[in-house]
Amino acid sequence: MNFLKSLASLAMKLAARSGRMLQSLPGLRSHHRSIGNLARSERGESLISFALSASILFSFVFGLFEVCMAFYTYEWISECAREGSRYAIVHGASCITHTGASCTVTASGVNSYISALTLPNLGAGTMTPSTSFPDGDEAVGHRVKVTVTYTFPYQIMFKSHSTLTMSSTSEMYIMQ
Known about the structure:
With 176 residues, the chain is an alpha+beta fold. It folds into two domains: 2-43, no CATH class; 72-173, no CATH class. 52% of the residues lie in helices and 18% in strands. Strands 1-2-3 form a three-stranded antiparallel β-sheet.
């Protein structure tokens, strides 16, 4: 801001000097008055131009931030869906721990696992996981389908808060 003030001050000094120089020339007194009036009338033009340009620039930059956050969030829910299906394929009907206990997981167990993932949630939206077994059960060779739905809240300048619903699905075959 100080730079702009000093630049404006320098411009006004130069205009005043050029006006004095023109005033010293014999036939240009009337021309000097029009230059002085022109310099005084354009005094606030640069400030108004900067204000308009800056508001457009900042709107564009913050809008770009929101778009980047939306893409990041979509990648995040895609990763959650993949992690849920990976968890389900290694905890199928024939899953046994090293002690001989069963470690078979159900659809609600996969949903709980996805909800407990601590991936960064910068959008502060709502994530809803859904797990199904299209072939009927958790047997080896059957499929598991994990769908994660996320409600992404966003705000763009000059527009009220809105939400965008994103969804990602991952489907894999149960391995054990």
